[in-house]
Specification:
Oligomer: single chain
Helix content: 25-40%
Number of helices: 12
Structural class: alpha/beta
CATH topology of the largest domain: Rossmann fold
CATH superfamily of the largest domain: Thiamin diphosphate (ThDP)-binding fold, Pyr/PP domains
CATH class of the largest domain: Alpha Beta
Order of helices and strands: EHEHEHEHHEHEHEEEEHEEHEHEHH
CATH architecture of the largest domain: 3-Layer(aba) Sandwich
Strand order of the largest sheet: 9-11-10-13-14
Radius of gyration: 19 Å
Strand content: 15-25%
Shape: globular
Largest sheet: 5 strands, mixed
Protein backbone atom coordinates (compact mmCIF):
# COMPACT_ATOMS: atom_id res chain seq x y z
CA UNK A 1 0.00 0.00 0.00
CA UNK A 2 1.08 3.58 -0.66
CA UNK A 3 -0.39 6.97 0.23
CA UNK A 4 -1.65 8.51 -3.01
CA UNK A 5 -3.74 11.45 -4.08
CA UNK A 6 -6.05 11.05 -7.07
CA UNK A 7 -3.47 12.29 -9.59
CA UNK A 8 -0.94 9.75 -8.35
CA UNK A 9 -3.53 6.94 -8.28
CA UNK A 10 -4.61 7.55 -11.88
CA UNK A 11 -1.00 7.89 -13.04
CA UNK A 12 -0.23 4.57 -11.35
CA UNK A 13 -3.29 2.95 -12.97
CA UNK A 14 -2.22 4.21 -16.41
CA UNK A 15 1.33 2.96 -15.84
CA UNK A 16 0.16 -0.53 -14.85
CA UNK A 17 -2.30 -0.73 -17.74
CA UNK A 18 0.37 0.24 -20.27
CA UNK A 19 2.83 -2.27 -18.80
CA UNK A 20 0.22 -5.03 -18.89
CA UNK A 21 -1.09 -4.45 -22.41
CA UNK A 22 0.88 -2.95 -25.31
CA UNK A 23 -2.41 -2.07 -27.00
CA UNK A 24 -3.02 0.71 -24.44
CA UNK A 25 -2.14 4.05 -26.04
CA UNK A 26 -2.53 7.53 -24.54
CA UNK A 27 -3.25 10.62 -26.61
CA UNK A 28 -4.16 14.21 -25.83
CA UNK A 29 -3.00 17.80 -25.61
CA UNK A 30 0.34 18.25 -23.79
CA UNK A 31 0.17 14.80 -22.17
CA UNK A 32 3.68 13.77 -23.23
CA UNK A 33 6.58 16.02 -22.31
CA UNK A 34 4.46 18.22 -20.03
CA UNK A 35 2.59 15.32 -18.43
CA UNK A 36 -0.80 16.92 -18.99
CA UNK A 37 -2.14 20.15 -17.55
CA UNK A 38 -2.61 18.47 -14.14
CA UNK A 39 0.45 16.18 -14.52
CA UNK A 40 -1.67 13.03 -14.50
CA UNK A 41 0.44 11.47 -17.28
CA UNK A 42 3.75 12.74 -15.88
CA UNK A 43 6.70 10.48 -16.67
CA UNK A 44 4.83 8.05 -18.90
CA UNK A 45 6.29 9.28 -22.19
CA UNK A 46 9.83 8.60 -20.89
CA UNK A 47 8.82 5.06 -19.95
CA UNK A 48 6.67 4.13 -22.96
CA UNK A 49 7.94 6.51 -25.70
CA UNK A 50 6.14 8.95 -27.98
CA UNK A 51 4.66 6.04 -29.92
CA UNK A 52 2.32 5.26 -27.00
CA UNK A 53 2.03 8.64 -25.25
CA UNK A 54 1.05 10.94 -28.10
CA UNK A 55 0.87 14.73 -27.97
CA UNK A 56 -1.97 15.83 -30.25
CA UNK A 57 -3.03 19.10 -31.86
CA UNK A 58 -5.64 21.25 -30.07
CA UNK A 59 -8.51 19.46 -31.79
CA UNK A 60 -10.90 17.54 -29.53
CA UNK A 61 -12.98 16.11 -32.38
CA UNK A 62 -9.81 14.77 -33.95
CA UNK A 63 -8.62 13.29 -30.63
CA UNK A 64 -11.88 11.37 -30.16
CA UNK A 65 -12.18 10.42 -33.84
CA UNK A 66 -8.64 9.12 -33.96
CA UNK A 67 -9.26 7.13 -30.77
CA UNK A 68 -12.34 5.53 -32.31
CA UNK A 69 -10.28 4.46 -35.30
CA UNK A 70 -7.58 3.07 -33.01
CA UNK A 71 -10.16 1.05 -31.05
CA UNK A 72 -11.68 -0.38 -34.23
CA UNK A 73 -8.17 -1.36 -35.34
CA UNK A 74 -7.59 -3.32 -32.12
CA UNK A 75 -5.86 -0.84 -29.83
CA UNK A 76 -7.09 0.40 -26.42
CA UNK A 77 -6.83 4.18 -26.64
CA UNK A 78 -7.09 6.48 -23.61
CA UNK A 79 -7.75 9.98 -24.98
CA UNK A 80 -7.49 12.88 -22.56
CA UNK A 81 -9.66 15.96 -23.07
CA UNK A 82 -7.94 18.78 -21.23
CA UNK A 83 -11.15 20.13 -19.66
CA UNK A 84 -14.72 18.80 -19.78
CA UNK A 85 -16.05 21.97 -21.40
CA UNK A 86 -13.82 21.34 -24.40
CA UNK A 87 -15.28 17.86 -24.88
CA UNK A 88 -18.36 19.29 -26.60
CA UNK A 89 -16.17 19.79 -29.66
CA UNK A 90 -15.92 16.00 -29.83
CA UNK A 91 -19.58 15.42 -28.89
CA UNK A 92 -20.61 14.19 -32.32
CA UNK A 93 -17.81 11.62 -32.38
CA UNK A 94 -18.66 10.40 -28.87
CA UNK A 95 -22.43 10.20 -29.33
CA UNK A 96 -22.79 9.24 -32.99
CA UNK A 97 -19.90 6.81 -33.21
CA UNK A 98 -18.21 5.74 -29.95
CA UNK A 99 -21.44 5.09 -28.07
CA UNK A 100 -23.29 3.44 -30.97
CA UNK A 101 -20.68 1.42 -32.80
CA UNK A 102 -21.33 -1.87 -31.04
CA UNK A 103 -25.08 -1.54 -31.64
CA UNK A 104 -24.55 -0.42 -35.21
CA UNK A 105 -22.41 -3.47 -35.97
CA UNK A 106 -24.70 -5.86 -34.05
CA UNK A 107 -21.89 -6.47 -31.52
CA UNK A 108 -19.42 -7.48 -34.23
CA UNK A 109 -17.15 -4.53 -33.40
CA UNK A 110 -16.39 -3.28 -29.88
CA UNK A 111 -14.87 0.06 -28.96
CA UNK A 112 -12.62 -0.42 -25.91
CA UNK A 113 -11.62 3.16 -25.12
CA UNK A 114 -11.52 5.29 -21.97
CA UNK A 115 -12.03 9.03 -22.40
CA UNK A 116 -10.48 10.90 -19.48
CA UNK A 117 -11.33 14.48 -18.56
CA UNK A 118 -11.24 16.75 -15.49
CA UNK A 119 -14.71 17.90 -14.38
CA UNK A 120 -16.48 20.13 -11.86
CA UNK A 121 -15.46 23.35 -10.17
CA UNK A 122 -14.37 24.61 -6.79
CA UNK A 123 -10.88 25.67 -7.91
CA UNK A 124 -11.65 29.18 -9.25
CA UNK A 125 -11.44 28.38 -12.95
CA UNK A 126 -13.60 29.68 -15.79
CA UNK A 127 -16.83 28.03 -16.93
CA UNK A 128 -15.44 25.73 -19.63
CA UNK A 129 -12.96 24.41 -17.05
CA UNK A 130 -15.66 23.72 -14.44
CA UNK A 131 -18.36 21.78 -16.30
CA UNK A 132 -20.27 18.85 -14.77
CA UNK A 133 -21.57 17.09 -17.88
CA UNK A 134 -22.30 13.61 -16.47
CA UNK A 135 -26.07 13.75 -17.06
CA UNK A 136 -25.68 14.82 -20.69
CA UNK A 137 -23.51 11.83 -21.54
CA UNK A 138 -25.47 9.38 -19.37
CA UNK A 139 -28.48 9.98 -21.61
CA UNK A 140 -26.54 8.31 -24.42
CA UNK A 141 -27.10 4.57 -24.75
CA UNK A 142 -23.91 2.55 -25.05
CA UNK A 143 -21.66 4.93 -23.11
CA UNK A 144 -20.48 4.11 -19.58
CA UNK A 145 -20.01 7.16 -17.32
CA UNK A 146 -17.82 6.93 -14.20
CA UNK A 147 -16.94 9.59 -11.60
CA UNK A 148 -14.75 8.55 -8.64
CA UNK A 149 -14.51 10.49 -5.39
CA UNK A 150 -11.38 8.91 -3.88
CA UNK A 151 -7.90 7.92 -5.07
CA UNK A 152 -8.65 4.25 -4.33
CA UNK A 153 -11.81 4.26 -6.44
CA UNK A 154 -10.12 6.26 -9.20
CA UNK A 155 -7.44 3.60 -9.66
CA UNK A 156 -9.80 0.64 -9.32
CA UNK A 157 -12.51 2.06 -11.58
CA UNK A 158 -10.00 3.04 -14.27
CA UNK A 159 -8.56 -0.48 -14.24
CA UNK A 160 -12.05 -1.95 -14.68
CA UNK A 161 -12.70 0.52 -17.49
CA UNK A 162 -9.51 -0.29 -19.41
CA UNK A 163 -10.18 -4.02 -19.05
CA UNK A 164 -13.64 -3.66 -20.58
CA UNK A 165 -14.78 -3.60 -24.19
CA UNK A 166 -17.11 -0.61 -24.07
CA UNK A 167 -16.40 3.12 -24.38
CA UNK A 168 -16.10 4.71 -20.95
CA UNK A 169 -16.25 8.39 -20.06
CA UNK A 170 -13.98 8.68 -17.03
CA UNK A 171 -14.71 11.94 -15.19
CA UNK A 172 -12.04 13.15 -12.76
CA UNK A 173 -13.15 15.87 -10.28
CA UNK A 174 -10.53 18.60 -10.50
CA UNK A 175 -10.93 19.69 -6.87
CA UNK A 176 -10.22 16.14 -5.68
CA UNK A 177 -7.02 15.70 -7.68
CA UNK A 178 -4.81 16.75 -4.75
CA UNK A 179 -7.31 17.40 -1.96
CA UNK A 180 -6.33 14.39 0.14
CA UNK A 181 -4.37 11.15 0.11
CA UNK A 182 -5.38 7.65 1.14
CA UNK A 183 -3.87 4.20 1.13
CA UNK A 184 -4.02 2.63 -2.34
CA UNK A 185 -2.62 -0.79 -3.32
CA UNK A 186 0.42 -0.43 -5.56
CA UNK A 187 -0.53 -3.52 -7.54
CA UNK A 188 -3.35 -3.64 -10.10
CA UNK A 189 -6.89 -4.10 -8.74
CA UNK A 190 -10.43 -3.45 -9.94
CA UNK A 191 -13.42 -1.64 -8.47
CA UNK A 192 -16.54 -2.93 -10.24
CA UNK A 193 -18.31 -0.52 -12.57
CA UNK A 194 -22.01 -0.13 -11.81
CA UNK A 195 -21.68 -0.66 -8.04
CA UNK A 196 -22.19 2.15 -5.55
CA UNK A 197 -20.15 2.48 -2.33
CA UNK A 198 -21.60 2.88 1.15
CA UNK A 199 -19.44 5.65 2.61
CA UNK A 200 -21.05 5.38 6.06
CA UNK A 201 -24.02 3.59 7.54
CA UNK A 202 -26.82 5.32 9.42
CA UNK A 203 -30.43 5.13 10.54
CA UNK A 204 -31.78 8.71 10.52
CA UNK A 205 -31.39 9.92 6.95
CA UNK A 206 -29.97 8.81 3.58
CA UNK A 207 -27.70 11.03 1.50
CA UNK A 208 -26.95 9.94 -2.07
CA UNK A 209 -24.10 11.72 -3.81
CA UNK A 210 -20.93 11.34 -5.92
CA UNK A 211 -17.81 13.15 -7.10
CA UNK A 212 -16.78 16.34 -5.29
CA UNK A 213 -19.91 16.34 -3.17
CA UNK A 214 -18.94 13.19 -1.25
CA UNK A 215 -16.29 15.23 0.54
CA UNK A 216 -18.75 18.10 1.15
CA UNK A 217 -21.33 15.73 2.65
CA UNK A 218 -18.76 14.07 4.91
CA UNK A 219 -17.54 17.42 6.22
CA UNK A 220 -21.13 18.53 6.85
CA UNK A 221 -21.80 15.40 8.88
CA UNK A 222 -18.64 15.95 10.91
CA UNK A 223 -20.27 19.16 12.14
CA UNK A 224 -23.42 17.23 13.15
CA UNK A 225 -22.03 14.23 15.06
CA UNK A 226 -25.41 13.37 16.58
CA UNK A 227 -26.95 12.54 13.20
CA UNK A 228 -26.83 8.95 11.97
CA UNK A 229 -26.63 9.27 8.19
CA UNK A 230 -26.46 6.61 5.51
CA UNK A 231 -24.19 8.02 2.77
CA UNK A 232 -24.09 6.39 -0.67
CA UNK A 233 -21.44 7.29 -3.27
CA UNK A 234 -22.81 6.36 -6.71
CA UNK A 235 -19.33 6.10 -8.32
CA UNK A 236 -20.89 5.05 -11.64
CA UNK A 237 -23.44 7.43 -13.16
CA UNK A 238 -24.31 5.20 -16.09
CA UNK A 239 -25.31 2.51 -15.29
CA UNK A 240 -26.69 3.49 -11.87
CA UNK A 241 -26.71 0.95 -9.05
CA UNK A 242 -30.49 0.90 -8.65
CA UNK A 243 -30.51 -1.79 -5.97
CA UNK A 244 -28.15 0.18 -3.74
CA UNK A 245 -30.17 3.37 -4.27
CA UNK A 246 -33.46 1.70 -3.36
CA UNK A 247 -32.02 -0.13 -0.36
CA UNK A 248 -30.44 3.04 1.03
CA UNK A 249 -33.69 4.99 0.55
CA UNK A 250 -35.79 2.33 2.25
CA UNK A 251 -33.41 2.09 5.19
CA UNK A 252 -34.19 5.56 6.57
CA UNK A 253 -37.25 6.77 4.66
CA UNK A 254 -35.70 10.23 4.26
CA UNK A 255 -33.51 10.99 1.24
CA UNK A 256 -31.27 13.88 0.20
CA UNK A 257 -29.51 13.80 -3.17
CA UNK A 258 -26.47 16.05 -3.55
CA UNK A 259 -24.62 16.78 -6.78
CA UNK A 260 -22.60 19.66 -8.18
CA UNK A 261 -24.22 19.69 -11.63
CA UNK A 262 -27.31 21.87 -12.24
CA UNK A 263 -30.64 20.54 -10.99
CA UNK A 264 -32.70 20.48 -14.19
CA UNK A 265 -32.77 17.03 -15.85
CA UNK A 266 -29.83 15.97 -13.70
CA UNK A 267 -28.68 12.78 -12.02
CA UNK A 268 -30.72 13.72 -8.96
CA UNK A 269 -33.90 13.65 -11.02
CA UNK A 270 -33.14 10.12 -12.24
CA UNK A 271 -32.31 8.91 -8.73
CA UNK A 272 -35.52 10.50 -7.44
CA UNK A 273 -37.52 8.72 -10.13
CA UNK A 274 -35.96 5.35 -9.24
CA UNK A 275 -36.88 5.85 -5.58
CA UNK A 276 -40.39 7.01 -6.43
CA UNK A 277 -40.89 4.00 -8.68
CA UNK A 278 -39.48 1.33 -6.37
CA UNK A 279 -39.65 2.64 -2.80
CA UNK A 280 -42.34 5.32 -2.65
CA UNK A 281 -44.34 3.63 0.13
CA UNK A 282 -41.30 3.51 2.40
CA UNK A 283 -40.45 7.20 1.99
CA UNK A 284 -41.92 9.46 4.69
CA UNK A 285 -40.61 12.88 3.60
CA UNK A 286 -40.13 14.71 0.29
CA UNK A 287 -37.07 13.61 -1.68
CA UNK A 288 -34.75 16.61 -1.49
CA UNK A 289 -32.16 17.65 -4.06
CA UNK A 290 -29.21 19.93 -3.30
CA UNK A 291 -27.52 21.02 -6.52
CA UNK A 292 -26.10 23.98 -8.36
CA UNK A 293 -28.70 26.23 -10.02
CA UNK A 294 -29.72 25.60 -13.62
CA UNK A 295 -27.59 28.47 -14.88
CA UNK A 296 -24.27 28.76 -16.73
CA UNK A 297 -21.26 28.33 -14.47
CA UNK A 298 -20.36 31.76 -13.01
CA UNK A 299 -17.12 33.72 -12.99
CA UNK A 300 -14.66 32.54 -10.30
CA UNK A 301 -15.59 35.25 -7.79
CA UNK A 302 -19.18 33.96 -7.58
CA UNK A 303 -18.34 30.27 -7.47
CA UNK A 304 -18.98 29.84 -3.74
CA UNK A 305 -22.53 31.18 -4.16
CA UNK A 306 -23.19 28.72 -6.98
CA UNK A 307 -21.91 25.39 -5.67
CA UNK A 308 -23.61 23.25 -3.00
CA UNK A 309 -21.88 23.58 0.36
CA UNK A 310 -21.86 22.16 3.88
CA UNK A 311 -24.34 24.75 5.15
CA UNK A 312 -26.98 23.77 2.59
CA UNK A 313 -26.49 20.09 3.38
CA UNK A 314 -26.89 20.68 7.13
CA UNK A 315 -30.00 22.83 6.63
CA UNK A 316 -31.61 20.14 4.45
CA UNK A 317 -30.82 17.43 7.01
CA UNK A 318 -32.33 19.44 9.85
CA UNK A 319 -35.43 20.27 7.82
CA UNK A 320 -36.11 16.65 6.87
CA UNK A 321 -35.49 15.32 10.37
CA UNK A 322 -38.15 17.67 11.71
CA UNK A 323 -40.80 16.09 9.45
Amino acid sequence: MAMMNMVQAINNALDLAMAEDKRVVLLGEDIGKDGGVFRVTDGLVDKYTKDRVIDTPLAESSIIGTSIGMAIAGLKPVPEIQFAGFMYLGYSQIVNHAARYRSRTRSNVSLPMVIRTPVSGGVKTLEHHSESPEAEYSHVGGLVVVEPSTPYDAKGLFTSAIHGNDPVLFLEPTKLYRLFKQEVPEEMFEVPIGKARTVREGEDITIITYGTMVNVVEKALEKKPGISAEVLDLRTINPLDEDAIVDAAKKTGKVIIVHEAPMSFGVGAEVSAIIADKAIYEIDAPITRITSPSLPYPMPGYENYYLPNEKRVIEAIERLLEM
